[in-house]
Amino acid sequence: MSKIETLLAGGISLAGVGLCLVGSSVGFIRRHVRAEAVAGDVAAREIDRAAARFAGEQPLREIRDGQVPLRGGVRNTSPRRARGLHALISDVASTRIVRVDVPLSLLRVAKRGGFRYLGELTPLLEDTEFETDRVDVSLGELDRPKLVVDHAHEDGARILMWVE
Q1: Which residues lie closer than 8 Å to 43 by C-beta, 6 or more apart?
Q2: pTM of whole model > 0.70?
Q3: How buried is residue 23: exposed, middle or buried, by Cβ count under 10 Å (0-12/13-18/19+)?
């Protein structure tokens, strides 16, 4: 085989591996970030039920539309380590609920720097109402079970994010 054929074969192989990685990444995200069309009241009830577990707990971040978020909440001193990041998003404009369930072990690889914007939770859904809301949270802050964000927009859209 000539050098050109060898380089061509190597390039084709690398391209195939790259396509496989991209395809499996997209598939993984779709399994962990799911959107479903629902009526606004149905989404609101589901988020209210999930939020009831955190009654009286201050979120780790107070989101302020268009501004830097405020730090809040007390660090959880539980001996139990958090294993996954979860979020429920009621997106009023698109009449859907988005459910995010991602293992923290994956985030430690894919998002080592943490999250700057809430939109980073939904990489394949770039049209949620929370895309540009700043959260500025590091993965180190997500080590123990806690409420991370409970934020609503004036139109009724709401996001609840926690680790457990």
Answers
A1: 88, 90, 91, 96, 97, 158
A2: yes
A3: exposed
Is 159 in contact with 130 (CB distance < 8 Å)?
A: yes
Distance CA 129, CA 131 (A): 6
Check whether 77 has a pLDDT greater than 90. no
pLDDT at 24: 43
Contact 68, 134 (CB under 8 A): yes
Contact indicator for 163, 146 with CB cutoff of 8 Å: yes
Structural contact between residues 45 and 65, judged by C-beta atoms closer than 8 angstroms: no
User: DSSP characters for 90-132?
Assistant: EETTTTEEEEEEEEHHHHHHH-TT-EEEGGGG-TT-TTSTTTT
**Token pair of 45 as six digits:** 């009830």
